[in-house]
Amino acid sequence: MRQHAVFDRLPDQHAQITTLMRDYPAGHNIGWHFHDRDQLVYASRGVMTIRTKVGTWVVPTHRAVWISTRVPHAITMSGMVAMRTLYFKPRLARSLPPGCCVVNISPLLRELVLQACRFQFLKMRVPWQKHLIEIILDQLKAIQMVPLQLPHLSDPRAIRVTERLITQPGNRLTLTNLCKSAGASKRTLERIIQKEAGMTLGKWRQQLRLMEAVRLLAEGAKVTHAALDAGYNSPSAFISMFRKTLGTTPAVYFRAAGARGSN
Fold first, then answer.
1. Average pLDDT over all residues of the chain
2. Is 1 within a domain?
3. What is the rounded distance in angstroms from the CA atom of residue 77 to the CA atom of residue 81?
4. Which helix (H) or strand (E) segment is 238 a member of?
5. Taking burial as the number of CB atoms within 10 A of a residue's CB, which of 18, 141, 173, 228 is the most buried?
6. CA geometry: angle at 123 spanning 122 and 127, to 5°?
7. Does 232 fall in a domain?
8. Residue 11 is part of which domain span?
């Protein structure tokens, strides 16, 4: 059961942007909390898993998660994580949707985030800080979202199926047999999940497998082990899905992440 979320109040309520630089060990958990600001959470190293009441997001290196004001969330680290966070005064960054989403971080936006994090606060009344804030906001307008979300479900039958998949991502039972074990037909559950999550059960399972494999890679697993443990029939099937979603192969992606280091 989700714990009560704690209000994490930030210092200096007058600053347009407040920043946070923090490094976390593998497996570290940040419990349920929320802020009175929008936030962009970026890991210059490692992989984060963000949970809210409506879904789960896996955030690999070079990506960030956008979390709207007052959305309760918890974060788990896979591998050592160098977290760099920008907290935006409400209604300052209006280009991103309410709720949560994983977004691409361009090389320019990455450098802007790292530069901003050299200072605890950025304020519009300081000319050079005003310029930095405006460039960051301009970059957010062109940001692209990444499909690394796993929507949570509310129907008891759908929950039984998806919880079994979450606890056993490598489960190779057919969807038909999984649905029967939950006391419903595949057709019924497909209709329920399509209505609640906007995707088929097969797509939901596909998302789970990709996110699980990315998390395992961040913890040091080899591509073959990550793919098979996450339920893929072969490493090549995982590599194909990874490339389709993130634009490159796992080996190239994580090698580039290591080369950049943890600023």
1. 88
2. no
3. 6
4. helix 235-246
5. 18
6. 105
7. yes
8. 6-146
